[in-house]
Specification:
The protein has 2 domains: 169 residues, Rossmann fold, CATH 3.40.50.1950; 216 residues, 3-Layer(aba) Sandwich (Rossmann fold), CATH 3.40.50.10300. The chain has 13 helices and 19 strands. It catalyses: (R)-4'-phosphopantothenate + L-cysteine + CTP = N-[(R)-4-phosphopantothenoyl]-L-cysteine + CMP + diphosphate + H(+); N-[(R)-4-phosphopantothenoyl]-L-cysteine + H(+) = (R)-4'-phosphopantetheine + CO2. In the N-terminal section; belongs to the HFCD (homo-oligomeric flavin containing Cys decarboxylase) superfamily.
Length: 412
């Protein structure tokens, strides 16, 4: 795949070197187009060494190759990171005063702009209008992350992590070389609201201990990131996440299954698609000890009585918040002497009443906390789809699958 990586003149330009490495390590052909201002932060030698290609900056360089037209017309993907306030303004107004802005005017492939700037600049009405203009033209503009900026300031305006940018970029194109990957273009969920749950709940035993599970939240976070890249407005309810939530999504933090239940019921009303990827405890202690449970002097073992937790998936599937709402469940199964994990997944799909169920086989703890996975998607009509690869790859496949299910329910 031919990628053009534009680099704007902000201090966050150093992070784009890591983004460049992510693309080149996958074997993509990357041409870096730094603006003149960006070279004050990262020099051309860095871009040329990491990409193995020239990093042209001026429309009058290599004129015989007509770079100001050729680069954009030949590209499969254009990513600009960081996109400064000035660069967003020039792109929105169609200016073409350097090689990068010329390329943006010529490109017919997906274009992803990743803003990074001071909070006041990002929130200024002029910048907001420029972003709205670009999005109305089909340009994909990520929301910046919230965090520490230059100096002591913090707030929205931070460049998202390179991994998040990379995943959002690949979600815009069909990448057949990645195992199990399916395209989820930046418009397949445009105008849709998506609710994703992720992580694993913890049920307190006493002030120190809890009953929990090994879910890290990586797959749910990847799904939220892929849904956002596909154009959706995303709410992520995270239970004890071990990874950072992606940029551009609303994040609601919870701990217990009861808190997750309440958060889902509060957020599901506007959702067109609900993806229940969190690992929710089936049981919790019937009572919470007021003090740390101690070992007894006589050596007897404590007795902990458990009670069922609410079945959130079954509840929201039986009582949909709106017509046509699509609900997807997840199942982590190991199988037993008489049943395969897939058989358990089919039975769970029938019990829960959701529109699809994603099966993870977790024998010996496989999948939990890992960067790769393999899934089966089971639907009520008996169809089974399979995907494997990194969790970001699989997330893009799943979002594309869920988007088709959602499209088929219009008017249902």
């Amino acid at each position: 795949m031919k990628v053009v990586l534009g680099v704007g003149g902000g201090v966050a330009a150093y992070k784009s070197a890591l983004l460049l490495r992510l693309f080149t390590e996958q074997g993509h052909d990357v041409t870096v187009l730094p603006t003149a201002a960006s070279l004050n932060f990262v020099g051309a030698a860095t871009w040329e060494a990491l990409s193995g290609r020239p990093a042209p900056r001026d429309v009058f360089e290599d004129v015989e190759q007509v770079n100001h037209v050729r680069l954009g017309s030949e590209a499969d993907l254009v990513v600009v990171a960081p996109a400064t306030a000035d660069l967003l303004a020039r792109a929105a107004h169609g200016l073409a005063d350097d090689l990068l802005t010329n390329t943006l005017l010529v490109a017919t492939c997906p274009v992803l702009l990743v803003p990074a700037m001071h909070t006041q600049m990002w929130q200024h009405p002029a910048t907001a209008a420029n972003v709205a203009t670009l999005r109305s033209r089909g340009v994909h503009v990520l929301d910046p992350a919230v965090g520490r900026l230059t100096g002591a300031d913090s707030g929205p305006g931070r460049l998202p992590d390179p991994d998040d940018i990379h995943a959002a970029a690949l979600a815009l194109i069909d990448e057949p070389s990645s195992p199990g990957r399916e395209a989820a273009s930046g418009s397949v969920l445009a105008g849709r609201r998506v609710l994703v749950t992720a992580g694993g709940t913890r049920e307190p035993l006493d002030p120190v201990r809890y009953l929990g599970n090994r879910s890290s939240g990586k797959q749910g976070v990847a799904l939220a990131r892929a849904a956002r890249a596909a154009g959706a407005e995303v709410t992520l309810i995270g239970a004890n996440l071990q990874v950072e939530p992606p940029a551009g999504v609303e994040h609601v933090a919870v701990e217990t299954s009861e808190q997750l239940h309440d958060a889902v019921l509060a957020a599901r009303g506007d959702a067109d698609l609900v993806i229940m990827a969190a690992a929710v405890a089936d049981f919790r202690p019937r009572s919470l000890a007021a003090h740390k449970i101690k070992k007894s002097e006589d050596g007897t073992d404590p007795v902990i009585e458990l009670t069922r937790t609410p079945d959130i998936l079954a509840e929201i599937s039986a009582h949909r918040a709106r017509p046509g709402q699509v609900i997807v469940g997840f199942a982590a199964e190991t199988g037993d002497a008489t049943h395969t994990p897939l058989e358990f997944a089919r039975a769970k799909l029938a019990r829960k009443g959701c529109d699809a169920l994603v099966l993870n086989e977790v024998t010996d703890g496989a999948v939990f906390g890992q960067d790769s996975t393999a899934v089966h998607v089971v639907t009520p009509d008996g169809q089974v789809a399979e995907a494997s690869g990194t969790k970001d790859d699989v997330a893009v496949f799943l979002v594309g699958t869920f988007a088709r299910i959602a499209a088929s329910t219009v008017g249902r």
